[in-house]
Amino acid sequence: MSRVVDAVVLDVEGTTSATGFVVDVLYPYARERFGALLAERSDELEVARALAQVRTELGEPDAGPARIEQALNAWLDEDRKVTPLKTLQGVLWAEGFARGELVSHFYADVVPALRRWHAEGLRLYVYSSGSVAAQRAWFGHSPEGDLRGLVTGWYDTRNAGPKLEAGSFRTIAADSGISPDRLLFLSDRPGELDAARAAGWRTVAVRRPQEPYYAQDLQGHAEAETFEHIDVRGSGA
Question: What are phi and psi of 153, to 5 degrees?
Fold first, then answer.
């Protein structure tokens, strides 16, 4: 069945791109550089704000660089979606992409679909637990070149809110000016899809066999194994 919508909102990890790449390549890249970032750049505005958030999250207002690095690494090990962790990862990843040390990953079915949907007049947005800086770097340094021109807007846990809360999806709908029932959210994670549906959005679960959430109950969400199987068109088509 073709879904008539005005915009498609994309999760990244597990949906457009392999979780394994993030865990095996990007996480170690950040882990190796947290210490230097905390020691040498704690006075930079974005870094300083993230460090204050780490201290708040820990309930330790006097936590020093060593304690903060320990917490960041523990959150990495737990794959926690904590905003200051994502912010600091984003700072490091953006620089790694800009230096050519990193190139992002997209499943083979994704970029052709994004280009087709964009050409057909659909607006594309990204909503990821990774920071907006990390998202822009990811789409800007793909194996197929700079894809940022396909994307209308970027949302993360800082400017939209946690991905498991319906209120975050209401925030995105209000910010984009699009009626919730004209927004389609693509994700591999059932809890995120549930939150989007609770906010009145359309949803499709992207179920790739190699991804962590593949075996989970989808609670009635439509599903697709690849973007090629998602039949969507704009309201003006």
Answer: -155, 165
Within the chain, residue ranges assigned H as helices are: 19-21, 27-31, 34-40, 45-58, 65-78, 83-98, 110-119, 132-140, 166-176, 190-198
Residues facing 7 on adjacent strands: 123, 183
User: What domains can be seen in the chain, in order of their start residue?
Assistant: 3-17+104-234 (3.40.50.1000), 23-98 (1.10.720)
Instruction: Return the H-helix or E-strand segment holding 235.
Output: none
> What is the residue-wise DSSP string for 158-223?
TTT--TT-HHHHHHHHHHHT--GGGEEEEES-HHHHHHHHHTT-EEEEE--TTSTTTTS--TT-EE
Residue found by looking up tokens 């947290």 in the block: 34
- Which amino acid is located at 111 in the chain? V
pLDDT score recorded for residue 218 = 85
Token pair of 218, please?
Answer: 């989808």
Q: Facing residues of 124 across strands?
A: 8
Q: Please tell me the pTM assigned to this model.
A: 0.89
Per-residue model confidence as pLDDT tens digits over 124-173 = 999 999 889 899 999 999 999 999 999 999 999 999 999 999 999 999 99
Rg, the chain, Cα only: 18
| 18, amino acid identity | A
Mean residue pLDDT across the chain: 94
